[in-house]
């Protein structure tokens, strides 16, 4: 850069030299600018502060000189002040300037215009005085006042001071107790505190702190901490940002925490007391039952007027709405029962749940009237059923395959739909036959079986209870592990086109699941296959009520993400709550089209749980088919209040009839989830 002094007008150069001695006597920083803001002169104090000679800065726009390099906001303020001063208006404000070695100080800055005789601004005088110590004192006073304001509330509260620069925390003794952290004489790191925050609350708390710092506003958040004993306590945290540093940003926060667990407990008790109101549900259910009986009479009358098909459609629609209503009522009753230990309340809730089951029974009769087939379980001698079907099965197998049976003489009865059992055995026999094209041996065996704790761990879809086990084993070609993993998936088949639909094994799965059981497959290539159906004992006399205990025998999820597709808002809400209760994460959609869009964009979904009939051209079955064709890693479970379970063309899809208990839902979800994939 050329020496700017040589380019200055002689008159101005003379003025500069004449003012130097005066400038250097002034305490603080002072200089001289042109009306346009170019630097003409600066005193030695100002030059020494930035470690520059006058030749290095003279002639440059004042806002581009080293004093302002570290503070863009101050630079903009200086530019605005020069424009105002050039029009004759003086300015004064606080600003940060930067010296040598990046030293930052706060100055009281003023800019004064100088006029000639005709009132024209001929020059500007910038002046600054160091007020850094004054600002520090003000900040210290601000912090002390904040401490004082909080002290009156801190008798049972924990107080904290967070240094945002090094993330060090200074805690009161009470604060250590609230977080259940061993007391420390010195500061602790922020990570020590964060380690005790409940994982579900951590992100929300960090977000609140970040907003408080960025926007310089107080924060207030409720959150949970986990003590070393496992106890969870609720805390309320309040804080304020302090100590404004570079560019006005807070450099610390001060606040308090206090225990609000008792308040939270009281809120829960109030909510539980409100559950007593659910008793009114039974009265409403009985009214609905009476209404349904009247509808049945009306529909039978209409059947004689040759409008039976229309009646069936009406019945199906009513059943759907009623089943959705029962699903909401039953779901809330179950969740309520899980949240109380009061035996009287539990008894009242069980009465209401029994009324829900009564309503479901009425609904099943209505569906039967509408000619929609449903499962009709009875106490069944499985051995007798197999013996009676043997001749038919032998004819089906042909001469190349030998049929053997091994039936337990002490086999308990199972509560099953006889026709569905026959269909399941026939499907498995046909699959076994196709796996032995050159002939072989097929064995049907039965036995009583009780899963122990270790087996329950190994079979996530099972429960610790008594089962009747029906096994179909063959000496066929067997299946590879990847084929076994997909064998129960609807539409999956290894057979040639036209030789199989891929629905046989999935239909067996659907039957077992609907009956309260499950299916296991054991197979090795070249060693044959064993398909085992586990069906629940019929331990309850005919006509007796069996209400699931919502607090036991639950198959919990492991945080898998479930896509819930349901158009009815109330049903969607209670289903969402029940899925969360079972340990799953949930994302929602209201139509099958929305569900498809979510599946296309979200690759962390493990299972689609969808209603069958929804508004729009796309049904739950369409969504299921799309999912199975495009997302092999995603399981599918459908549900319906129309009892689509019994529709012949859909009997092989994983379906769950409304209303259902929490235990049945847990069981169906676990069975429908895909097998874990290698990563």
Write the layout of secondary structure elements.
Layout: H1 10-25, E1 29-33, E2 39-42, H2 44-50, H3 54-57, H4 72-86, E3 91-98, E4 104-115, E5 121-130, H5 132-151, E6 158-163, E7 168-171, H6 173-179, E8 188-189, H7 190-194, H8 199-215, E9 219-226, E10 232-244, E11 250-259, H9 261-274, H10 280-303, H11 308-338, H12 343-369, E12 378-380, H13 382-397, E13 401-406, E14 414-416, H14 418-434, E15 440-450, H15 453-458, E16 466-474, H16 481-486, H17 504-514, E17 518-524, E18 528-536, E19 561-565, H18 569-581, E20 585-589, H19 592-601, E21 605-611, H20 620-630, E22 635-640, E23 655-657, H21 662-672
Parallel strand pairs: 13-15, 19-20, 19-21, 21-22, 22-23
Antiparallel strand pairs: 1-2, 1-5, 3-4, 4-5, 6-7, 6-11, 7-8, 9-10, 10-11, 12-14, 15-16, 16-18, 17-18
Helix pairs in contact: 10-11, 10-12, 11-12, 11-18, 13-14, 14-17, 19-20
**Unreliable parts:** 1-8, 11-16, 303-308, 368-373, 497-502, 540-548, 645-649
- Kindly report the spatial arrangement of strands forming the biggest sheet: 8-7-6-11-10-9
Distance, first to last CA: 63 Å
**CATH topology type of the largest domain:** Heat Shock Protein 90
Number of domains: 5
Q: Sheet bearing the most strands, described?
A: 6 strands, antiparallel
Cα-based radius of gyration, to the nearest Å: 40 Å
The rough form would be described as elongated
What is the strand tally?
23
Q: What is the structural class?
A: alpha+beta
Mean pLDDT: 80
CATH superfamily of the largest domain: Histidine kinase-like ATPase, C-terminal domain
Q: Beta-strand percentage?
A: 15-25%
CATH class of the largest domain: Alpha Beta
**Helix count, DSSP H or I runs of 4 or more residues:** 21
Percent range for helical residues? 40-55%
The appropriate CATH architecture of the largest domain is 2-Layer Sandwich
